[in-house]
Amino acid sequence: MKRITLFLLGMVLFVSFFAFKEPNDKYFAILKNLDIFATLYKEVNTYYVDEVNPTTLIETGIVSMLKSLDPYTNYIPEEQIENYRTMTTGEYAGIGATVVNKNKKATIVMPFEGYIAHRSGVKIGDEILKIDGKDITEKNSSEISTFLKGQAGTPISLTIKRLGNDKPLELQLIREKITIPNVPYFGMVTEDVGMIALTDFTNNASKEVKDALNQLKEKGAKNIILDLRGNPGGLLSEAINISNIFIPKGSEVVSTKGKVKEWNKQYLALNSAVDTDIPLIVLTNSNSASAAEIVTGVIQDYDRGVVVGQNSYGKGLVQATRSLTYNSKLKVTVAKYYIPSGRCIQALDYSHRNPDGSVGKTPDSLRVPFKTKNGRIVYDGGGVKPDIEVAKTNNAPIVNSLENKGFLFDYAVYYASKNPSVKSAKGFELTEVEYQDFVKWLIGKEYDYDTKVEQTIVQLENSAKEEKYYEDIKSQIQSLKTKVMHNKEADLQKFKPEIKEILEKEIVAHYFLERGTIEATFDDDLEIKTAVELFKDKTRFQKILAQR
User: Fold this and answer.
1) Would you call 290 a catalytic residue per the annotation?
2) Residue 104 — φ and ψ, nearest 5°?
3) Residues 471-501: tens digit of each pLDDT
4) Residue 361 gets which letter from DSSP?
5) Active-site residue among 255, 290, 341, 401?
6) Exposed, middle or buried, 58 (CB in 10 Å: 0-12/13-18/19+)?
7) Is 450 annotated as catalytic?
8) Do the domains at 91-179 and 185-392 have one common CATH topology?
9) For the chain: N or C, fewer Cβ within 10 A?
């Protein structure tokens, strides 16, 4: 507490040394507000009725202050540095498995292929009861992760409950360095279409993409799908290098502009491209952000490939990490980035908030047009719009309920315990008999839900009562309720294709891990199917890139 107070007072003295005498000067405002903050903290600490935790109080103030700027400017205290390092490098030491708290159970949802958990026989669905003899059944996902991580080479013991085993299993493992791949999958979708799934932009992302591309071409790929759906971005340098794989050396990739001159930079492709001719389709959705949008925007602006999917997130901001005292750090937005056409795709204007503090999107009327290399019109201020839009499909309420309750995951665990193997991930499909077995397995399990139509009827009923019309239309409302009231058994058959699609993906994961979950979607994934069909129609492919 004393240390923090001295720090604040020191900041006041530091700023006052540089402050000018003019009361309207910026430095005077900084001095004034730091002084207010320091004295306020002192008064609260002295007179507040209960004891105050100084670290919690100050961190709450810091977080709230930065939140008023944008969601990407963050304070990282010393105790969170390791998690931040994992996020930016993709490396940590542990057992190599994703563990989440599902219904108050520490559950293995995905062991990473080749790492110690996988090599030791850890399976999807295993429930961890104890770590090094300590009961973790009441711990949250973050706490469990902390227990699992540690120095590479150190031992760790797990007590595991597995479906089909009467007694818990005792496993003795050695933590090892884990590197989370940026490219969890690359493979052939068809005989001549290869796909690279890029999920992050940490160190070596460009090397992974380059290696994947070369291997796919060796396997006969004549067309490439680069899947950036759900990719939140990462290192700017990797976005530049990945773009460089597909565009010529010397091409501008991105430029940045900030308040500080050192961030006014232009970044060029510095290496020889790997392939500037192979037909390319980039898949995006609303969760494709930042570095993923730079790559997507570069491909679109140079008319190097076709973008398919949904509008990207719209994050045109660049962050840098600054070191603070006591081993803490500040991740701060330092610039906006501009892709080759000259547009900035930032969707939200954090510098001009609404009166209630909310942030609005740039209206379409204020978005400025730019041109791609071939003269196609593209716009700033709203992410990257696909050349071919594929409508996002919404699951039926019963599907969401089964997923949220964990029943699709749980049945996949049950299925895998009864079936030692399946032939392949791509070709796996539940038979009608197997699906009906799933329906029987659900008997007695609670997964009730309301459809939107039912919710609308309830709103209508409430409004009618408020406005004194209910008695007049009561019979019609009751009739409508009867007609649209959902039946779970009927819905299990009506929405069977949707349920089967997710269930098959969950089951395949038990046999082929993450690779299997991706390959199992090939026959149902609308964006991939659209891309494959477009590759077959070369005339249409070229027309999209050439139209003005």
Assistant:
1) yes
2) 65, 30
3) 888 888 888 777 766 788 889 999 999 999 9
4) B
5) 290
6) buried
7) no
8) no
9) C
All residues at 6 or more sequence positions from 356 whose CB lies less than 8 Å from its CB, including other chains? none
For residue 168, what is the DSSP state? -
What's phi and psi for 24, nearest 5 deg? -90, 0
Percent of the chain with pLDDT over 70: 95
Residue of 130, 210, 315, 505 with catalytic role: 315
Question: What average pLDDT does the segment 354-367 reach?
Answer: 80
Structure tokens given for 414: 């049950």
277 — phi, psi (to 5°)? -120, -30
The residue behind tokens 């085993």 is: 165
CA 225/CA 221 separation, integer angstroms: 10
**In the block, residue with structure tokens 């007179």:** 47
Alpha helices in 124-268 (DSSP H): 141-148, 205-218, 236-246
| 102 catalytically annotated | no
Average per-residue pLDDT in the chain? 91
Instruction: Give the residue among 215, 275, 216 at the shortest CA–CA distance from 242.
Output: 275
Q: Could you give the CA distance from residue 139 to residue 111 in angstroms, rounded to a whole number?
A: 20
Query: CA neighbours within 13 Å on the CB side: how many for 484?
Result: 15
CATH fold label, 185-392: 2-enoyl-CoA Hydratase; Chain A, domain 1 (3.90.226)
Phi, psi dihedral angles at 390 (to 5 degrees): -115, 115
Q: Which CATH superfamily is domain 91-179 in?
A: PDZ domain (2.30.42.10)
Q: How far apart are CA 130 and CA 139, in angstroms?
A: 11
Locus of tokens 């292929």: 113
Can you point out the beta strands (E) in 132-192?
Answer: 134-135, 155-161, 169-174, 176-179, 185-188
Q: Indicate the pTM of the whole model.
A: 0.88
SS3 103: coil
Q: List the catalytic residue out of 301, 380, 387, 410.
A: 301
Number of residues written out for the chain:
548
Structure tokens at 409: 């995951």
Q: Which residues contact 302 (CB under 8 A, 6 or more apart)?
A: 247, 251, 340, 372, 373
E strand map for 199-278: 223-227, 252-257, 265-268
Domain ranges in the chain are 2-68, 91-179, 185-392, 397-449+489-536, 452-485
